Structures are given as C-alpha cells and as structure tokens.
Amino acid sequence: METFEYIKSVISIILGLSLAKLLQSAVKLVQHPGRTKPYWVHLLWSLYIFLVLIHFWWWEYSLKKVTAWSFEAYFFLILYITIYFTICALLWPDDIKDYDERYEDYFYSRKKWFFAVLALSFVADIVDTYLKKSGYFLQNTIEYPIRNVLHFAACIAAMYISNRRFHAVLVIAFILYELIYIIRLFNTIISPLPG
Is 9 part of a structural domain of the chain? Predict the structure, then answer.
C-alpha cells in the first residue's frame, strides 16, 4: 500500500464517523419527532458541516499530488480531521435533557464551544496546507487565506453574539459561500478557481 492510500484510509475512517454522527442524529428527529424540539439554525449548521465534510472527502483525492509526506504532516492531518468529528459531536450530543429537549437552548448554551472548534478548523486548514510543502500552499488563490481569515473572525464574533438573527444570517452566509466555493473549486457547473 502506497503512502497516499494508507493516509486516505485513516482520513476516510474519521470522516465516515463524522458523517455517521451527523446523519444518525438527524434521522433520530424523524424517528422520534416528539422527543426533542429541532431548531432550524442548528439544522442549517448541521447542513453546513455536512457540506464541509463532503467537500473535504472529495478534496482528499488531490492529496495524491503530494509526493513527500512527513510524519508531522500526516499527524496534523489526522488532528485536523478530528476537529470535524468534534464539531459533529458538539452539534449532536447524545442527549439534551438538561436543555428541556430543545436544540435551540442547547445550541446557544454551547455556541462558544461550537464556534471555537469551528474557528480552529480554519486555522488548522492553513497549517495543514502549509505542512504539505512543495509549493502546495502557494498554489491556492488569494481567496483561500482571505476566506479562512474571514470565516475565523466570524466564528470568534459568533462566540460572543447571542442575537438570533445574527446567527441565522451567519449560517445562511456560510452555506451559500460553501456551495459557491465548491462549485467553482471543483468545476461542477462553472469554471474552476485558478490554481
């Protein structure tokens, strides 16, 4: 097994667990509709994370272009992927009895944790890209660092802002940007990003 295949298998396991956590938890809302009260902003954050995970899994194929792997890059990539699993676990805890079975109450009581870990994912993305060396970091457009910095700043702000309208607009903006970014990056409908 070559290095890329080995690394890909570990990434796929952790991403698979993350997706399973999201999907299993969302299906429970359908299976047991009277147990908990869903919250649309919380559900949209789940959709956003689902998109990010799918994006990451598709992007993983481009790792075959990395010719030299170091243990540091491999280890950091595993830590980076673990951040996404943590985000999924924060979005969908095993039970929310302490929050009157309402995801709205749960989400706002744990928003600092959620947005702190989400902010960390944008920092980890830049570090992970840098660790791959061989010009990989420089192949990205200027949009890449600007995107990560703005997303990071928005997450930090969201940790301290409790306004429901702000959180609704923020999640919609994140989803729309992610969809447009995926479409452009992977040439699914229109021209891809240069680089």
Answer: yes
